[in-house]
Amino acid sequence: MTDAAFRSNSDNFCYRHPDRQSFVLCQRCTRTICPECMTQMPVGVICPECLAAQRQAAGEAQRQNIARMPRRRSRLATDTRPLATYTLVGITVLLYLVTLIPSIGGVVEYFLAFNSALAVVQPWRMLTVVFVHASIFHVGLNMLALWAIGRSLEPLLGRSRFLALYALSALGGSALVALLAPGSWVVGASGAVWGLLGAMLVIGRHIGANVTAIAVLLGLNLVFTFLPGSNISWQAHIGGGLVGALVGLIFARTRKIRQRRTQIWLLIATGVALVAITVAASLVFFG
User: Fold this and answer.
1) Domain boundaries, the chain
2) Which is nearest to 131 in space by CA: 151, 105, 109?
3) Assigned superfamily of 83-286
4) Which residues does the annotation mark as catalytic?
5) Is 85 helix (H, G, I), strand (E, B) or coil?
6) Could you tell me the sign of the dihedral formed by the alpha carbons of 64, 65, 68, 74, in that order?
7) What angle do CA 147, 148, 154 make, to 5 degrees?
């Protein structure tokens, strides 16, 4: 599908703001809405028209409770900042600075880095690997990529989906390292960042966006990963990218409100499978 065809499809844009692309639907009418039009409910979000209809149908006591929701959550409803992205960047940079402290830096890095030989007794390493980096160039490049991608992808998916994607992509990188490079030490958020790119590629294809630039970026990164002397864990990159693409497919195929429970269970199953793969590889290679 061409860019023109994509932009002509109103389902890809907020029905109240046709210039704003979104991936979130109202839980009642299933129309696409942007962050400014969302009102957070106990489960999901609804658009302004559905909120008005719900208020009208509710009893007096219910109406008073619902009336308080927009005032209490108004900042969330209009906040389009990718706060999860900024938080991840901030934590990662802070921990990198901590690892530069001679007295404690090495200890912090040791307990956060990933090694499949320790996966059974220290499973947190599968996720904390994204918070430690080998050099300022390493952390700078990864955080620049996370900042650039997250600013577009987080508002599209929503914060909870974005964080789930980032975490599962990190698990995917760790799982493939455990299978193909057992016992090796790995640090960095590259696997999780590759997962974001993989998800963007799949979601973009699904909604008809032009994904040529993303495909070229992935290809260039893949070539750079395999350059002699690069000292890059290609297993973490490929594992994160594949899992990110899978999660992107789950998001794309379970977009409707009635599929929310299915989406959650598929994400949980993916996470459990990745942990099981990593633990099994650790037991096979290190008994």
Assistant:
1) 3-78, 83-286
2) 109
3) Rhomboid-like (1.20.1540.10)
4) 190, 237
5) helix
6) negative
7) 75
